[in-house]
Amino acid sequence: MRIYEQSSTTNKKSYTREDWQGGYQSLKQEYDYWIDDIEGEIPPELEGTLFRNGPGLFDINGEQIHHPFDGDGMISRITFTNGRAHYRNRFVQTEAYIEEQKAGKILYRGVFGTQKSGGMLANIFDFKLKNIANTNIIYWGEKLLALWEGAEPHHLDTSSLETLGKEYFNGVLSVGEAFSAHPHFDPSCAMDGGNPCMVNFSIKPGLSTTITVFELDITGAIIRKHAHNVPGFCFIHDFAITENYCIFFQNPVKFNPIPFALGMRGAGECIKFQENQPTSAIVISRNPQKREIKTLEIESGFVFHHANAFEKDGEIIVDSICYENLPEVEPESDFRQTNFDTLKPGQLWRFHLNLATETVNREIIESRSCEFPSLHPNKVGREYRYVYMAAAHDETGNAPLQAFIKVDIETRKKQLWSAAPRGFASEPIFVPRSNATSEDEGWVLGLIYDSEHQRSDVVILDAKDLTLVAKLHLKHHVPYGLHGNFVERVFI
Which segments of 104-176 are extended strands (E)? Predict the structure, then answer.
């Protein structure tokens, strides 16, 4: 593996689908060990814990999950201390996970098409979805929380990863109330005297949609909660914050509930992209006293994840991974047979929102297929210079994520570290070095699925130039995950 400043000019693909498929095998064993098989050296000053979350099971006793987003959440914890690293994984013991493991079969419908056996009659009018706690893992207010955007978080023990129960934030969150899997951490909140705070949201869709904004102080208490109604159905996975605003991109989709109600399809399979309709940027003040909502139209596109947002020269700047359309989940399809050549890539775009003129201008920052943006934690909601993303190996076309890319927003210079042809990348996490003097001084941490050895590696890259510092070989693979965070504390 090495740095690639430019991709190959040949037409040969950087991957095989068979290699990529290997990362979608269930990992049913729970491990707890020190990592001893290491190339390079772990920086002794890298001290803390990398938490990762994602679906760990793609079948229950041989019954296949229709889509990975329906898989039960599995937490991986990689602890760095004194130049060593320790790995532990554990499934989130949700009520549904325990029930299905005991029964040895699927008992719940999944949002993205997983059905109970027995066909339409077994699923008709069954609206009970399981909280799979598989999307993100955060540490806030001295609590480790596994998140899934459709319901409340699960509270985990930081040492054993045991599931302690659901988290309701001292009763502020009601039973079953959604709490998004994409919180953002404001390093210095003006409304709280400069103290850090966590900002999150929930969506209650329908003919009109209720967006609720939550803000939590450093103790984990919800100190602000305000709800806003917007017209139309909203399918929103992530949002962005500035010092004064929350920004939501309302993707142009339509939801037909009838096939879901009749037990024919999952809810996610009933969402259809409307390519002739514009995307809307919904701007909501973080101050609960300011109730006005601004909605600006953007050229049609679909956004799962935002990189960052900030205010400058009378505009709100939003950097987002934008797709030409939504990759729809089809009934009877097999996600392992994805044909990447038929799908449009996600690309990094910059949107200039002018609230005074109610206009939007946009420009592309990175045209290479990319996802899962990460940046310096102190730059969230502020003007920033560097973004790190998982990316395709080749500059053009669509393909699995096999690389990490660093983009200098100011100069547009880019650097790429690739695990191709047989490695596949996860979300990168930027970890700043203590007492750093520059924004990109630190490390990029990530998990790479190594299809050749059917295992995963934890890689540590120098964030300045994406050179490999160390590669930690695990004893097993970790299925492709979703999101995670680094905490400057050691939990062993």
Answer: 136-140, 143-147, 154-156, 163-166
d(CA 478, CA 483): 13
Contact between 430 and 387 (Cβ < 8 Å): no
332-364: burial string, b at 16+ Cβ within 10 Å, e else: eeebbebebeebbbbbbbbbebebeeeebebee
The secondary element (H helix, E strand) that includes residue 99 is helix 95-103
Rounded distance between C-alpha atoms, residue 170 and residue 167, angstroms? 8
182 annotated ligand binder: yes
- Going through 291-369 in order, the beta strands assigned E by DSSP cover 293-298, 302-312, 315-323, 347-354, 359-366
Do the Cβ atoms of 260 and 267 come closer than 8 Å?
yes
- Positive or negative, the Cα torsion across 106, 74, 264, 334? negative
Listed residue (130, 169, 139) closest to 52, CA to CA = 139
Q: Does the pLDDT of residue 9 top 70, yes or no?
A: no
CB 225 within 8 A of CB 213: yes
Given the DSSP bridges, would you call strands 48-55 and 442-450 parallel, antiparallel or unpaired?
unpaired
Report the 10 Å Cβ neighbour count for 306.
23
Each residue's pLDDT tens digit, 378-418: 999 999 999 999 999 999 999 999 999 999 999 999 999 99
pLDDT in the model for residue 8? 40
Nearest alpha-carbon partner for 390 in 464, 310, 482: 482
pLDDT digits (tens, 9 = 90+) for 64-83: 999 999 999 999 999 999 99
β-strand partners of 90: 75
Residue-range domain boundaries for the chain: 2-487
The Cα–Cα gap between 48 and 83 comes to: 11
End-to-end CA distance of the chain: 31
Q: How far apart are CA 67 and CA 61, in angstroms?
A: 16
pLDDT one-digit tens code per residue, 254-312? 999 999 999 999 998 989 999 889 999 999 999 999 989 999 999 999 999 999 999 99
Residue 298's nearest CA partner among 247, 255, 346 is: 247
**Which contiguous run of DSSP H or E holds residue 102?**
helix 95-103
pLDDT level of residue 18 (50, 70, 90 thresholds): very high
Range scoring the smallest mean pLDDT among 8-17, 204-213, 298-307, 442-451: 8-17
Strand 315-323 to strand 240-241: parallel, antiparallel, or no bridges (unpaired)? unpaired
Mean residue pLDDT across the chain = 94
In this prediction, what percent of the chain has a pLDDT beyond 90? 88
> DSSP state, 265?
S
Q: Is 305 annotated as a binding residue?
A: yes
